[in-house]
Amino acid sequence: MATFQEIIQSEKPVLVDFFAEWCGPCKMMAPILKNVKESVGSAVTIIKVDVDKNPEAARQFGIQGVPTLMVFQKGQVKWRQSGVVPAKQLEQVLEKYR
Description:
There is one protein chain. The chain is α+β, with helices and mostly antiparallel strands. The chain has helices at about 5-10, 25-40, 55-60, 85-95, and strands at about 15-20, 45-50, 70-75, 75-80. The protein starts with a helix and ends with a helix. The mean pLDDT is about 95.
């Protein structure tokens, strides 16, 4: 399995959802991400990172609150937002990098 660092080096955009099991708003993001995945298909990689199980990744990107969504492309942060983000807004963000 590819490491987080390998995944975010991808040419195609990678949407990362930094979340925690205990976080209510994070649970609201799950169906939103599912809708976005159906909408964008294989043009975008979507991964979830549990900040409690991956404190290094959370520290590396200064994740203060969850959920925090980030878009990476070729290892660079292209976009970042904390809190619940509507599917339409996420799709518009991802459209810019496809």
